[in-house]
Specification:
It contains 6 helices and no strands. With about 180 residues, it is an all-alpha fold. Helix 2 packs antiparallel against helix 3, helix 2 packs antiparallel against helix 6 and helix 5 runs antiparallel to helix 6.
Length: about 180
């Protein structure tokens, strides 16, 4: 548990040094994903896993008050990022000369392709961003209530939300 808490502290520090979630309209999508959404999502998923005891049962006592507080803040950061992405009128995928993770993989989408997919369905992208904000809001509430079952459901919803958006706007190989 001590290692997990050190991991949480490190993620929080790294996230604090990146663009603020509310700046999602100014930052590139890659920045928002790498500096806020991915680390905070991983934190929520890792902490949710920690809730399971050796018998596979959820036990909210497995997390300390400070762990629950970190999860709550992660949810707030994710919600803020989702809302900012939904409000943004344009979305720059990455800065000039900055490669996307996995860009060298066969069939990987280019930043230009991703930008075109988002531009072609801006309302759909905004809807996915709002789904992210909604899933994150459920994480916040579950953390505030110290409700392991609700956090588990919210974490699953977050994963589904991420997959849905990525499949539509990040990874699709053909029309």
């Amino acid at each position: 548990m001590r290692i997990v808490f050190l991991f949480l502290a490190a993620v929080s520090l790294v996230t604090a040094c990146g663009p603020m979630p509310g700046d999602a309209g100014k930052a590139t999508l890659r920045q928002v994903m790498a500096d806020t959404i991915e680390p905070q999502s991983a934190l929520v998923q890792d902490m949710t896993f920690e809730l399971y005891d050796d018998n596979g049962e959820l036990d909210p006592r497995r997390l300390s008050t400070s762990h629950w507080d970190v999860i709550e803040q992660a949810g707030k950061d994710l919600e803020k990022a989702g809302r900012a992405l939904a409000r943004a009128e344009t979305h720059k995928v990455t800065a000039e000369g900055v490669a996307l993770q996995g860009a060298d993989a066969e069939g990987a989408a280019t930043p230009e392709e991703i930008a075109a997919w988002i531009e072609a369905d801006h309302d759909g992208f905004a809807a996915e961003a709002r789904k992210l904000a909604g899933a994150a809001q459920n994480i916040v509430v579950a953390a505030q209530l110290r409700d392991a079952i609700e956090l588990d459901a919210a974490a699953l919803s977050l994963g589904d939300t991420c997959s849905s958006c990525h499949n539509q706007f990040w990874y699709r190989q053909s029309e």
